Amino acid sequence: PPDFSKPASSWMHPTPLPSSLTYTDASFPTSASLIEIPCNWYGEDETPLSYLPHVHNSHGYVDVRVIEQMWKDRFEWLWEHAHEDLEQPSQSPSQEKSGQATREDGRDVKEESVTEFIFPIVLHPDTSGMAHIIGMIERVLVWLKGKEGEGVEFCRYEDIAREAKMKTGKK
Predict the structure, then answer these.
(1) Of 17, 34, 46, 71, which has the highest C-beta tally within 10 A?
(2) Spatial distance between the Cα atoms of 89 and 42, rounded to a whole number of angstroms
(3) Threshold 0.90, pTM exceeds
(4) pLDDT tens for each residue of 20-47
């Protein structure tokens, strides 16, 4: 264990690599090969729904309907803004003849310009397994499943990373 009475330089060292990997190993993860899936504090269950007495900003016992609505509101905002380019493009008389649409700011609107986004939800087993939270998660999932016909799909993190690597050419 570290001796915290000594300077950090005496005990703070990078985690050693497993003996099977080296920095020159082609399989060693780097910024060129890693895919970041943007999870955040607003899309996870533990921080607002668990009481951690040793943490000053611990919420604990927040009504699950508050978190449920926050998740739905965040998703709806992202969904609406991902599709706003396709709604009501303005056209000038010359563009009406050519069929080319532009946004109010003058940029072209293309039919395939739907912005994809990831809405990751992080569930901690010690939180999501609580009886009152299971119902909230079920309601959110049922609500999202109701949007599958609109283009919403459920994916594993592994599949998201694999698809992102194919699109970006990362190995």
Answers:
(1) 71
(2) 32
(3) no
(4) 656 565 666 677 778 888 888 888 898 8
Q: What angle do CA 73, 114, 105 make, to 5 degrees?
A: 95
Average pLDDT over the chain, rounded to an integer: 78
Query: What secondary structure, in 3-state letters, does the chain show?
Result: CCCCCCCHHHCCCCCCCCCCCCCCCCCCCCCCCCCCCCCCHHHECHHHHCCCCCCCCCCCCCCHHHHHHHHHHHHHHHHHHHHHHHCCCECCHHHHHHCCCECCCCCECCCCCCCCCCCCCECCHHHHCCHHHHHHHHHHHHHHHCCHHHCCCCCCHHHHHHHHHHHHCCC
Long-range contacts (CB closer than 8 Å, 24 or more residues apart) made by 66-69:
67/136, 68/136, 68/139, 68/140
